[in-house]
Amino acid sequence: MGILERKIRQKENMRTNILAVALQLVKDEGWQSLSIRKIADAIEYSVPVIYDHFANKEDILFELSLDGFRLLQRTLEKNKRKYPDPVERLKGYADVYWNFAFKNPEYYQLMYGLGMPCCGSGKIKPEFNAFRDHIGDAIEEIVDKKGRLDAEVCFRTHAFWSVIHGLVSIVMMRCSDIDDSTMNKKVLDETVEAFIKNL
């Protein structure tokens, strides 16, 4: 390996390490307490080293949000292969989204701006729309099978996503007074069933 390749690899490793440490700090202390100084202290380097890899904290947040969207995308793809029937696939997507949110709350909060400003303004990437695209395809397939020529797939996709995101947000942001996860999942399942029935 040449000197240039080694430097590139070292830079990539440092960048990966910064992101991993930032995410761990968030898991330990929350998004609001994350700072460039804390990341530098945790990796035992000076602040300028962080700025060699990221312009500012918002760039770090943006990259972490992309990691979250990619993780969600991989899970959605597995679900897509698992369910050839679009109705079951759409139900599966709702479950994937729900489970992702509560298994990865730090990512979810960052990705969708829960309790914090959204990051990445003006830098929208395809990863941001993966869930919308997956559910849109399933909804379109369902309404086609039903012969609904007047179905507004875009509107129905937005409505479906809004309902699921709303339920997740209520549970995630009001965890102190809503603690029955079985009841919350039942609300999700019944809502998805009713939505699909009315497509």
TrEMBL record:
Residues 35-54 bind DNA. It holds the Pfam family TetR_N. Keywords: DNA-binding, Transcription, Transcription regulation. Residues 12-72 form the HTH tetR-type domain. The keyword Transcription applies. The keyword DNA-binding applies. InterPro entries: Homeodomain-like_sf, HTH-type_Tx_Regulator, HTH_TetR, MT1864/Rv1816-like_C, Tet_transcr_reg_TetR-rel_C_sf. This is TetR/AcrR family transcriptional regulator.
